[in-house]
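pinned: reference chain
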Amino acid sequence: MLHSENDYLHIWTCEPVFHHRRRERKVVRLSMRLGWTTVAVFITLACLSAVAQDCSRPALHGSFLQPALGDAWTLKQWRNEFHYMRKAGLDQMVLQWSADSKEKTTIYPSGVAGYTQSTKHDVVDRALDAADASGAQVYLGLQINDDWWTKYLTDKSWLNNEAKLANALADDLWRRYGHHKSLTGWYLGFEVDNTATTSAEWDNLVAFYRTVGNHLHKLTPGKPTLISPFFSTTADLSPSQWQTMWEYVLKRSPIDILALQDGVGVAHATKKQLPDWFSGVGNAIRNSRPQMQFWADTETFNLDSEPQPIRSIVNDMGAVRPYVSSYLSFSFNHYLSPQQVNPLYYQTYLKYLETGKVESVRPTTPTHLNSVAVDSTRIRLTWTASTDNMGVAGYKVLRDGKHVAMLYDAATTYVDSGLDSSTPYTYVLRAFDAAGNESAVSNPTTATTPEPHLYPTNISLDKPYVVTMPANASYPDTGGVELTDGILDATNYADPAWQGRATTKIYAFTIDLGATQVIKEIRSNWLQDKASGILLPKQLTCLVSDDNVNFTSVGAVNRPSPGDGNLSRWYTLTDLTGVNGRYVQVQVKPGWDAGWKFLDEIEVRH
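pinned: its structure tokens
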């Protein structure tokens, strides 16, 4: 989920920061949502009824929007976004949250005591104004709170306090924005999953839904209340057991719409597994609260926090078509809008809406693939671009027959990093388009990394450093010395040498070497534990300075592709020439996945 932060990852692209809406609770229930998931203001267009909309073929009718993205838009971009949505058949927006009750912040000028506005603009007002002008509908999300992922449904007192706050927020929002014709309903942002196994937890959830739902229905009669639970096929409750849970909860709760996250984007499920889970929830609704609407929340992103191919989106919608009456998305605005991603995805989706079929022309084969070793850990690839009838969306890189990277742009060069020294590597490429069509395989090319130069002196050992973002309190930087103490731990995130952060905000570590030094190598050690939501950073940039004010970049290292195992990996810039400085900064670009990033050491060597 995207939290209220002042500086976001998408500095260069205006993309929202917390890409996924889900959170893995395996890491002390603190991993960020989507997906790992995750993201909190929904702009949802829904097929309000089978009569009102043509649902003869699967199509998105709404979208979740996170507040940070809306805050970054100009008024013109807001208007343009609703234009793009309407052209694609979407006419509702769910603003995923309006407040963060842990941080005591809001995305509008709130009258709730003790809360301050964290956004530059009144995001609620901008959403409603733009929706009014376009004839769209908006569901307002109430609060999020990161403690939900640890307290969950076990802390009744905490939930009761959050319910009271939700009601106060709703009163405040309705007082300020109730005159907007586009204000259609409400969204409750605490996402329930299939780990609630006890009747006590179910009763706590019912109490929360009753307190908030009854208040909303009294405050705004006729305006529906929406929830969006998620599931993992490896969690505690099976589909039939989850059906039992929802029958119990919904029979006792004044909820109007349930939009079930399909979990494909965050790899909680595959398309083949969706019918079991959607049929279970559908049965629960029919058996307990048949007046409810059952929608799908289709994920339009993948584990790279990039757009899903249009064919995958359509196939996922088709898999749940027998069970739902409408399709929301997480998220058209973040992963299909031409204002946010490659316009080819939007154009290809419009083509599907026009023809009823996803286009199937394969891109031409990339040619003249060449490789050369940059240093002992990196190889640079270059090639001649492919072409496509709709346009090439990017390239798949295969190393020694295994997929290692997806490149989501038209660039014709790539640096593969994190490699072993003195090792030959053979590469081929495939081009792909926004539909998901792939080209034939390119010509192979082989390069061998040389032996590393030995830079024996770690000149950063025991040196002081400062960070722009503290580590999470559950995985802290004990004593503020862990990153330069020379201690490496096992590939277990609970080992004390690791420190963890869950954010998409760019952050940095700056080490003071004490005096200007010749620098030949900069490296840092990171953890991958995908099962626990711990992912490698998207990119690291290394910079040096003599005065701690003016920094010069000496290079960047992209996320390596070591496979899916539980492992640690060094991000290394080596064989540097002409690099001198007293201060060394490692700038971390986490990526849009909002998963945890765990680090245990930074070394500067000569």
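why pinned: The two ends are 41 Å apart (CA to CA). Confidence is low (pLDDT under 50) at residues 1-55.
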